Amino acid sequence: MKFRYLTLGAALLAGMPAYAHDAKGSHGGRLGDAGAYHAELVVKDKTIEIFLISEDNKPIDPKGFKGVAIFNSGGKAERITLAPSEKNNLSGTAATALPANPKGAVQLTAPDGKTATARFD
Q1: How far, in Å, CA of 38 to CA of 57, rounded?
Q2: b/e per residue, 75-93, with b = 16+ CB within 10 A?
Q3: Check whether domain 25-120 has CATH 3.30.70, yes or no
Q4: Predicted local distance difference test score (pLDDT) of residue 23
Q5: DSSP 3-state helix, strand, coil percentages of the chain (rounded to 5)?
Q6: Which of 12, 22, 40, 69 is deepest in the core (most CB within 10 A)?
Q7: Each residue's pLDDT tens digit, 60-75
Q8: Beta bridge partner(s), residue 34
């Protein structure tokens, strides 16, 4: 009887996904789920870049998308407008320098008007 429970417990543990700390994207940024998309957040000083990735890990053309990043900066929430850039991403500039791993969210609006939110804690 104990062997049956041990076997069941081992099978359940084997089926669980491995715990990973802050997955990194192909541009070195943090990944967040945003509905049907993955969003890779790259922060460089005042610049925020969001690279959109499909569920099958292919880049998504950001034309027609828009977004707003809301991050906690210096104890206050800062809203940063994001727009498509020539680097095949959504980009925006904050008023002040952001930490390398800011906490907040990015709200995306697709060309069809559907919205999705990626959280970065």
Answers
A1: 8
A2: eeebebebebeeeebbbbe
A3: no
A4: 75
A5: 10, 45, 45
A6: 69
A7: 999 999 999 999 877 8
A8: 37
Task: Give the distance from CA 77 to its chain's centroid.
Answer: 18
Residue 76 identity: K
Contacts of 103 (CB under 8 A, 6+ apart): 71, 72, 120, 121
Q: Distance (Å, rounded) from C-alpha 30 to C-alpha 22?
A: 6
Of residues 120, 121, 80, 81, the one with CA closest to residue 97: 80
Strands 104-109 and 90-93: unpaired
3-state secondary structure labels for all residues of 49-95: EEEEECCCCCECCCCCCEEEEEEEECCEEEEEEEEECCCCCEEEECC
pTM of the full structure: 0.79
Host H or E run for residue 116? strand 115-120
